[in-house]
Design a protein that fits this description.
Blueprint lengths: L4 E3 L8 E4 L1 H10 L7 E5 L4 E11 L3 E5 L5 E2 L6 E7 L5 H12 L3 E5 L10 H21 L7 E2 L5 H9 L3 E5 L8 E2 L10 E6 L7 H9 L3 E4 L7 H15 L5
Helix pairs in contact: 2-3, 2-6, 4-5
EC number: 2.1.1.193
Keywords: Cytoplasm, Methyltransferase, rRNA processing, S-adenosyl-L-methionine, Transferase
Function: Specifically methylates the N3 position of the uracil ring of uridine 1498 (m3U1498) in 16S rRNA. Acts on the fully assembled 30S ribosomal subunit.
Length: about 250
C-alpha cells in the first residue's frame, strides 16, 4: 500500500512540518494515522516530500518529519490535454475524476453547440469549482503529486486556437460515415503537446468540425462502440499514455 497523499499550500522548508486544517483533520480523524506511518506531502504542482508521522494530536494536528526534504517530479511529456464538452448533471465530475486517476495533464471545459448543460454566471463558476475540487481529490486518491490543470471554460474559437498550437491535435468523432482514423494508429509526437477534443452527447457539429479542421485537428475514433462523453476522454487518455510510453 502506497503512502497517503496530503496537499499543502506551500512545501515545507525544514525537516519537520505540522499538518493542520482540513488535511490535518482527514489525516488524524479519518485516516487515523499513527506515529511511524508514512505520508507524502505535495502542493499538487509536482513538488513533494516523503514523511513519517511523529505524532497525532487532537482531531486535526499531525506532526510529520521529512528526512529527505522536498523533491520535484519533472513535467511529463508529451503533455496530454483533453477538451471536454460539458456533460449533463454530475457526469462532468465523473469525467474529471476518471481522467485524473488515469493520468491526464490538463482538462479544458468546452461549451459546445450541442451541449445541454450551460455554464453561465454563478452556475458556471460553481461548476468550475466542482471540477477543480474533483481533480484535486482524485489526484490525492490516485497518489499523484502533479494534479491536472482545469482551465476556464472555452468557446469553440478558443478551443480552435488551442488546437492550432498543439504538436498533435485531434477530435474524437463517432460518425461511421465520416473519414476518421483510429486513434490507435495515429502518428503521435514523442514530446510536446497532445490536445484531444471530446464532443457532447449530441456530437460535434459540422461547423465545429470545420473550425477544428482549419486549426489542424483531424477526426479520430476509438473503436466500434460509441462511448459516452463522460468516459471517452478517459479511454482516450489511457490509449495515449500507453502509445507514448508514459505507461510502461
Amino acid at each position: 500500500m502506497t503512502a497517503p497523499v496530503f496537499v499543502v499550500e506551500r512545501m515545507p522548508t525544514g525537516t519537520e512540518f505540522v499538518l493542520e486544517g482540513p488535511e490535518g483533520r482527514h489525516a488524524v480523524s479519518v485516516k487515523r494515522l499513527q506515529p511511524g506511518e508514512d505520508v507524502v506531502l505535495t502542493d499538487g504542482l509536482g513538488h513533494w516530500a516523503e514523511g513519517e508521522v511523529r505524532s497525532a494530536e487532537g482531531k486535526d494536528r499531525l506532526t510529520v518529519t521529512l528526512p529527505a526534504g522536498v523533491q520535484e517530479e519533472p513535467e511529463p511529456t508529451p503533455r496530454i490535454t483533453v477538451v471536454q464538452a460539458l456533460p449533463k448533471g454530475d457526469r462532468g465530475e465523473l469525467a474529471v475524476e476518471t481522467m485524473t486517476e488515469t493520468g491526464v495533464d490538463a482538462i479544458v471545459p468546452w461549451q459546445a453547440a450541442r451541449c445541454i448543460t450551460q455554464w453561465k454566471g454563478d452556475r458556471g463558476a460553481k461548476a468550475l469549482t466542482k471540477w477543480r475540487s474533483t481533480a484535486r481529490e482524485a489526484g490525492k486518491q490516485s497518489r499523484r503529486v502533479r494534479f491536472p490543470e482545469v482551465a476556464e471554460a472555452m468557446t469553440t474559437k478558443q478551443v480552435a486556437a488551442l488546437l492550432a498550437g498543439a504538436d498533435f491535435a485531434g477530435v474524437l468523432h463517432e460518425d461511421r460515415d465520416h473519414d476518421s482514423t483510429p486513434l490507435a494508429t495515429a502518428e503521435l509526437p514523442a514530446e510536446g503537446t497532445i490536445v484531444l477534443v471530446v464532443g457532447p452527447e449530441g456530437g460535434v457539429s459540422p461547423q465545429e468540425l470545420t473550425a477544428f479542421a482549419e486549426a489542424g485537428a483531424r477526426p479520430y475514433r476509438l473503436g466500434r462502440s460509441v462511448l459516452r462523453t463522460s468516459t471517452a476522454g478517459t479511454a482516450a487518455t489511457a490509449l495515449l499514455l500507453g502509445r507514448t510510453g508514459r505507461w510502461g
